[in-house]
Amino acid sequence: MRQTTAYFLAQLKRAIRLLPGQVMADLLVCVCAGALACLLISQGAAAAKGSRYRIGMVGDLSASYLGYGMAAVQEMDDSRFMIELVPMSEQEAEAAFWRGELYAVMRVPEGLLESIVYGENDRLITYTATQGQQGLGTMVMGEITDLASTLVTCSQSAIYAMQRTLADQGRGEEIGRETDKLNLALINLVLSRGDFGEVEVLGYGDGLSLELYYFCGMILLFLLLSGLLNSALFVHGNGVFSCFLKARGVGAFRQILGEYPAYLMLVTMGLFILCPPLGFGLARGLLGIPEWEGMGAAPFLSFLPVLIPVAVMLAAMQFFLFEAAEGIVNGILLQLLSGIGMGYLSGCFYPSAFFPEKMRALGEILPSGAAARFMQAGALGRIPAELWAAVFGWTGVFLVLTILVRKSRMTGWL
């Protein structure tokens, strides 16, 4: 045991000598990640302010009913949260459309209301969008246009039928009053259509908002790539020295027991360097995480202990990858490929909820998937026992594999 302790202290001193360079590398990565995060947050805020579809309305909008209808849509209808109708001339609309300021242009033909009033319905509203917008938004707008046409036609038929019925019954003096009542009923029916159903937003990952999901993903990606920053500890590692230690009574298990904690110290040090700017951003409200809004850095401080088991597991994984690779260059390449690949499959770059089912299942069974779900659950303050078992199970698997690979190298099997 004395030899193991001495070997650990030697590795710890070596790690401390490498610490200044590692701190500089960690700070550089943090600055780059912080700049990217600020850019994404600012873009997200700008998108949130202008997230409605701006649609240019071209044509004669001076008719009272049409003007009142547009005002009602913009002030009272639920669609005002999604669509902004902007009256403008043909030239203004065309210029704004090609500058990308408008999602689409709707042209109202002359005589539209007269056509509706007289039951002719021979004037069509033209909806113009670009070829590249033939996605969900265009489909929704097409459905809205069809819905509006159906409502206008059916409402018109109902009103005309009611008027003819009252005229046939000799109640012509009631036509005006009953027409107003029916129009109000139809308008209320349209405006209250949002009460017919309820939209349930489940969120991402373990029910997280997109902001908190990517917050966890950013930290996970940093930990996955920390093997690149800490690779200097393995520069002078070789099998000859391991055999020398074995001859001195320090076997594979004791060697790993002395080396792994030193490497873990470098990983956790990088994590601690990342945490202060994140805590500062949360305290100042710069990151805009809905679940933690208005609580400052307190939720983040309670979230920090959740990162320790994740760091322990990922450090064990990186330690195994360096041990399994032949040479430091191969080890670095293996760290890069595995970090980026696992990060993508586990949803660091794109929400895994949108992946195909098999791809999502693969990402969940990977160590990075266990780490992602562990962090997401910890961010909400509820970590089930199976996630604890998965994290510590993967940690044990990697350490055992590392010991086996070290033994194999010392005995000449590899």
**CA radius of gyration:** 32 Å
Give the uncertain stretches in residue-range form: 44-50
Shape: elongated
Distance between the termini: 28 Å
Tell me about the largest β-sheet.
Answer: 4 strands, mixed
Fraction in beta strands: under 5%
What helical percentage do the residues reach? 55-70%
Look at the helices and sheets and give the structural class: mainly alpha
Strand segment tally = 4
Summarize the structure in words:
This protein is mainly alpha-helical and 414 residues long. The protein is built from 15 helices and four strands. Strand 1, helix 2 and strand 2 form a beta-alpha-beta unit. The two termini are 28 Å apart.
Could you list some keywords that capture this structure?
single chain; 414 residues; mainly alpha; 4-stranded mixed β-sheet; 4 strands; elongated
Brief summary of the model shown:
The protein is mainly alpha-helical and 414 residues long. Helix content is 67%, strand content 5%. The protein has a four-stranded mixed beta sheet, covered by helices on one side.
Give the arrangement of secondary structure elements.
Blueprint: H1 2-49, E1 53-59, H2 64-75, E2 83-87, H3 90-98, E3 104-108, H4 112-117, E4 126-128, H5 136-168, H6 175-191, H7 210-224, H8 226-229, H9 239-247, H10 252-283, H11 298-324, H12 328-345, H13 357-365, H14 367-379, H15 385-411
Helix pairs in contact: 1-10, 5-6, 7-12, 7-14, 9-15, 10-11, 11-12, 11-14, 11-15, 13-14, 14-15
